Amino acid sequence: MDYVSALLPPVVMAVFFIGLVVTIVKSQGGPNKAKEDAIVDAALARAESTRQQGGTAP
User: Fold this and answer.
1) DSSP per residue over the chain, as a string?
2) Are the C-beta atoms of residues 43 and 50 closer than 8 Å to each other?
3) The overall pTM is greater than 0.85
4) pLDDT at position 9 over 60
5) Distance between CA atoms of 45 and 53, rounded to whole angstroms?
6) Residue 57 and residue 5: Cα distance in Å, rounded?
């Protein structure tokens, strides 16, 4: 029975990890992709303009 208690946590974590990966892959693209891309582009542009106005290099 010790082997069952030793293997149970890694197996449960693997199942949850696989579920997470499947969920992420399924949520890519679709009707919201353009909106998500626009949000990311706006955030990157805002960060770049802030960095240029501050005059400091990373």
Assistant:
1) -HHHHHHHHHHHHHHHHHHHHHHHHHHSSSTTHHHHHHHHHHHHHHHHHHHHHHT---
2) no
3) no
4) yes
5) 12
6) 52
